[in-house]
Design brief:
The structure holds two protein chains of two kinds. Chain A is of the alpha+beta class. Chain A contains three helices and ten strands, in the order E-E-E-H-H-E-E-E-E-H-E-E-E. Chain A has one domain. In chain A, strands 1, 2, 3, 4, 5, 6, 7 and 10 form an eight-stranded mixed β-sheet that branches. In chain A, strands 8-9 form a two-stranded antiparallel sheet. The longest helix of chain A has 22 residues. The relative contact order of chain A is 0.17. Classes of the chains: A alpha+beta, B mainly alpha.
Amino acid sequence: MRYRLVNINKLSGYEASLYSIYLEDEQRTLFERFLEENKNSFKSELTNILLRLNTIGHDTGARKQFFRSDEGKPGDGVCALSDIPKSNLRLYCIRYGSLIVILGGGGFKSKSIRALQEDKKLEKENYLMRQISLDIRKRMADKEIFFTDDYKDFEGDLNFNNEDDE
Amino acid sequence: MSKAEAYNSSIIDEIFDSITPDEDDKIRKRMLLAARIDIGIKAKGWKKKDLAEALKKRRSEITRWLSGTHNFNTDTLFDIERVLNIGLVTLKDVPKEQVIKFHLVVSEKVASANPTSYSDTLNDKSLIDLYYGKKSKSFAVSNNCSN
């Protein structure tokens, strides 16, 4: 998979930077794909999610309390934006403190399932974010990606090509 | 070192265009309220469980309050204000700022000096004396007050 990290201009602000994963093959980000997939069935939920992300970027920062943590492996930062009451639309993210969030994909989590692994779509989206978190951590360990001095942005080689590793 | 590209998305713009300012305001305020309660808990040296115990609530309920999605009722907010000793609901009117405008008109009769230029006026000793007190002056001062 070829992808790069992009900063979502509209949502990023003084309090936090919001990123997503631009998929070179699809010519869109994971977050845009999530919006496209759900815009007809879950319009009000998407509106709510977008406004909350906008508030995180411009007003509150990515406070831990706004996310369901522990959606990935320990320490990988994979989380989900908290449920809106009476809705189970999950958006998976990777959170780096309160200053950076990478938005991924997600989907509807039925009340009839407990673990995300019971739903193929959610499992795929969640495991993709786990993989991306791992890719970024490797780049950081190799000193190819850094945080900027204010910890609000990434800099370095933000283009990934997992086919090189296969 | 290269930073990430600033990315603009047409679908994000499209959804934003359909959002009313009221929706935006409501969600922002819910999240700011949740953030303020969290700051209040930490300022008191408490954890979520302490607030839960103080208000006889389940911890999961406090988690929901702090998620920024909860629609609080006023009694709950008053209880939180009381135990955390913070302000969440403003009831007193904030005094309206008053703007008072003064119009000051100063006029003075001076002997005709018939200066040829502004700098001549400034250098004319008799005029300087006139301005700074050797001769009596008459000032007409008026003011208008309006809110």
